[in-house]
Amino acid sequence: MITCTEHFRLKLPSWYEKQAVIRKLYREVVEDQVQISEEELRNAFVLLNQRLVLRQLLYFSEFVHTIHKDS
Prior knowledge:
Elements: H1 4-30, H2 38-48, H3 60-70
């Protein structure tokens, strides 16, 4: 029987190989056909670096209590 650690040790090289093939395919086929403007690059950078903040989190029980209380 294969342990969890052994399973991941066997699976990781294939994942890295797959990622390498994807990167190579992108470089050879897609990269030259796509033109990204400086503005698009800046906008993407801003979006990727945005931080979302959650001010209030209601649990379901509190939500149900609030509904019954208001009715």
